[in-house]
Amino acid sequence: MNPTRIKLGIIGGGQLSRMMAFEAQKMGIYIEALDPDPKCPASYVANSLIVSDFYNEEHLAKIFHNNDFITYDIEHINAEALKKLYDKEPKIFPSPYILEQIQDKLLQKKIFERAKVPAPAYRKLDKNEIENFESDIYPVVQKSRKGGYDGRGVFVLKSPADKANMLKTDSLIEEYIDFEKELAIMAARDKEGNIKLYPVVEMIFDDRVNICDITSAPARVSEKVVKEVNSIAEAIVENLDGVGIFGIELFLTGDEKVYVNEIAPRPHNSGHYTIEACKTSQFEQHIRAVCGLPLGSADLVIPAVMANILGDESHTGKPLITGLKEALQIEGLYFHYYCKSSTKPFRKMGHITVVDNSVDSAFKKVSQAKNIIKVISEK
C-alpha cells in the first residue's frame, strides 16, 4: 500500500494523537481524529476531526468506515463497540480485545501471568469488601481495576489507619515493591511478528501527583538489567500477539530484581524522547506498525532527557507560557507544546527534551530549563 494513500483514524485527540498526526503527515498519511473537544491538541494538526465522546457507537462506526486503519491514544474508550467493528473487519490496532484486557488491571495481571514475567503479587478486592479490608503486611498498594491514569486510581496504604481513605471501587491489592528505580521500555511489533525494542529508560516521578516528571535515556543500569527488561517486553508483546507500540513500566530493586508494573497499548510519556534521540520516533513506529509498513530502527542516536511541563499548581484558565525564550537558549533543548485550551494544576501542557553527549549533562540542562519554563494562566 502506498503510504500517501493511507487514511488513519485515531480515537482520541490528546497530545499523543497530535504527535502521531505530525509523524503521519510527514509520510503523506491522512489523519482523522475523534475527540469530544473541538479544540483538542490534535485538532490543529489532523486533516479532519469528529467531535464525539469515546462511547458513541454511531461516531465510532463513522471513523471506522472512513479510514483504512484505526488506532487510539487513550484506553478509556468503548472497547465493546470496537470489538463488534473489528469482528467485521480487523483493522483496529492494537486490537480491541487487547485493549479490553489492558483496561482492567485484573485482566492485565493475567497477561503477565500468561507471559510468565515477574510482577508484584496481588489479590482481587471488590468494592463491597473494602469496608472489611484487612492486611497482615504494610505498606500495600490499592489500584482501581478501571479508569486510572497519570497517578489516579492508585493509593498506598502505609498502615491500618489509611483504610478510611481507600478508593471506593473494585480494586487490586498489590504487593508493595521497595524499588530503587522505575524503568520503562517501548516495544513495537508489526503484523508479521517482528519486534523492535527501544532503549530501557529511567523514569522519575513527581511525588505530589505521581505523574512521570523526567525520563532519561538510556537508563543507568547494568547490562543484566537491560537484558531482563528486554526479555520481559518481548514476552509480553508476543503473548498479546499485539500490533503497534506498547509502553511497559517496571520496578527495579536494589538487588537488581525487575518486576513489571503496567502496560499501555499506545505511545507513552516515557517514549517522548524518541522524537529527537532515536532513528525512528515512537509515534512514527506506531503508525508504521498499525498501517502495515516496515518497522524502523529503534536505535538511540544520542543520549536524551525528557521532562514534562505541567500546569502550575496555583493556576487555572487560559494558558500563558513564561521563560520559554530564555530556556530555548540552552543548547540541545527541544520544546513541545500541546496547545491545550486551558491549564490547571499538574496538567500535562507540553514537554522538553535535551539531547547531549551524556545523560548527566542532559539532566543538568533539563533541570535548569524546568526552573525557567512555567505554564500559568492569563490574568
From TrEMBL:
ATP-grasp domain ranges (all copies): 109-291
One of the record's GO cellular component terms: cytosol
Classification via PANTHER family: PHOSPHORIBOSYLAMINOIMIDAZOLE CARBOXYLASE, PURINE BIOSYNTHESIS PROTEIN 6/7, PUR6/7
Coiled-coil annotated residue ranges, if any: none
InterPro entries in alphabetical order: ATP-grasp, ATP-grasp_carboxylate-amine, ATP_grasp_subdomain_1, PreATP-grasp_dom_sf, PurK, PurK_C, PurT/PurK_preATP-grasp, Rudment_hybrid_motif
Pathway as given in its UniProt record: Purine metabolism; IMP biosynthesis via de novo pathway; 5-amino-1-(5-phospho-D-ribosyl)imidazole-4-carboxylate from 5-amino-1-(5-phospho-D-ribosyl)imidazole (N5-CAIR route): step 1/2
EC number from the UniProt entry: 6.3.4.18
Record GO terms (molecular function): 5-(carboxyamino)imidazole ribonucleotide synthase activity; ATP binding; metal ion binding; phosphoribosylaminoimidazole carboxylase activity
Keywords attached to this entry: ATP-binding, Decarboxylase, Ligase, Lyase, Nucleotide-binding, Purine biosynthesis
Function per UniProt: Catalyzes the ATP-dependent conversion of 5-aminoimidazole ribonucleotide (AIR) and HCO(3)- to N5-carboxyaminoimidazole ribonucleotide (N5-CAIR). Catalyzes the ATP-dependent conversion of 5-aminoimidazole ribonucleotide (AIR) and HCO(3)(-) to N5-carboxyaminoimidazole ribonucleotide (N5-CAIR).
GO-annotated biological processes: 'de novo' IMP biosynthetic process
UniProt protein name: N5-carboxyaminoimidazole ribonucleotide synthase
Residues the record lists as binding ATP: 105, 143, 174-177, 182, 261-262
Species, as recorded: Melioribacter roseus (strain DSM 23840 / JCM 17771 / VKM B-2668 / P3M-2)
Top-level class of the enzyme under EC nomenclature: ligase
Lineage top rank: taxon: Bacteria
Complex formation: Homodimer.
Catalytic activity entry: 5-amino-1-(5-phospho-beta-D-ribosyl)imidazole + hydrogencarbonate + ATP = 5-carboxyamino-1-(5-phospho-D-ribosyl)imidazole + ADP + phosphate + 2 H(+)
Annotated family: Belongs to the PurK/PurT family.
